[in-house]
Write a structure and sequence with these properties.
253 residues, eight-stranded antiparallel beta barrel, six-stranded antiparallel sheet, elongated
């Protein structure tokens, strides 16, 4: 699947570059003629972004998983489009992983489960200011999620013991806004190809932790709890600047 995604991305990038280069090599036209070129643009644009590259200025920071997104845009005028971008995010998951046990007995195991993560919706506006080049202003909302860590097991030789410890972390909803510059072209009358570079600011949101444990079992506080309390907690930044580069393809109706 990863090889297929990479192949699709390389193909889209090649098409976009070829289209851009062909425009540069084309016969020079007047500004009035250039403005008249995109007037046959279809009203409805639907496209899919198979892959994107992003980066954040702050660390540690709760990063959004930029997976596949779907966009629907409607042409209010010949140059101004308004619509939505939606990402379903990562599906709920469950896994068992190694953990430096809450007790002093060495490495153990724990079960971790997450609800759907990185599901977001963007209100997107685009204005074509020069041929097929456009500027965008966007406002987004990302839904929060919950993570549960439980069933901690200490491993001592051939013996495994279940520890009375669990942790639930709740991540709140958060908001972000971006401005961007992109290029989109209709080819063969119905096929869309394009790319966009966005710069924005993302709020970190809030997180809260809830612990359940038996202090008698640990003769005090579990080590994981102390690490969270004095080292990990309060390291979140209030916001982060970020950039987002995407290549996409779709249909025009």
């Amino acid at each position: 699947m990863k090889n297929l995604t990479n192949a699709i991305t390389i193909t889209l990038i090649t098409i976009v570059i070829n289209l851009f280069v062909s425009n540069l090599k084309a016969e020079v036209v007047s500004e009035n003629e250039l403005d008249s070129l995109p007037k046959n643009r279809k009203k409805i644009h639907i496209y899919f972004t198979p892959i994107a590259i992003s980066g954040y200025t702050e660390y540690p920071f709760r990063k959004r998983q930029e997976n596949s997104t779907f966009s629907f845009l409607y042409g209010i005028t010949e140059k101004f489009y308004l619509g939505l971008t939606y990402s379903r995010g990562d599906s709920p998951n469950f896994r068992t992983q190694l953990n430096f046990s809450t007790s002093q007995n060495g490495i153990g195991l724990q079960d971790t489960s997450k609800t759907r993560e990185s599901e977001f919706l963007v209100i997107r506006s685009q204005y074509f200011f020069y041929g097929n080049f456009y500027g965008s202003a966007n406002f987004g909302f990302e839904k929060g999620f919950k993570q549960e860590d439980k069933n901690y097991r200490s491993i001592n030789g051939y013996n495994t013991s279940l520890e009375p410890y669990s942790k639930t972390t709740i991540y709140s909803d958060r908001f972000f806004t971006t401005i961007g510059l992109g290029y989109r072209k209709e080819i063969f009358d119905r096929i869309l190809v394009g790319f966009e570079c966005e710069y924005g600011i993302m709020n970190s949101g809030r997180s809260s932790q809830h612990y359940t444990f038996n202090p008698q079992f640990y003769n005090g506080f579990p080590s994981n709890y102390l690490i969270d309390l004095f080292i990990i907690r309060n390291q979140n930044k209030q916001y982060s600047e970020f950039h987002y580069i995407s290549v996409y393809a779709g249909i025009a109706i």
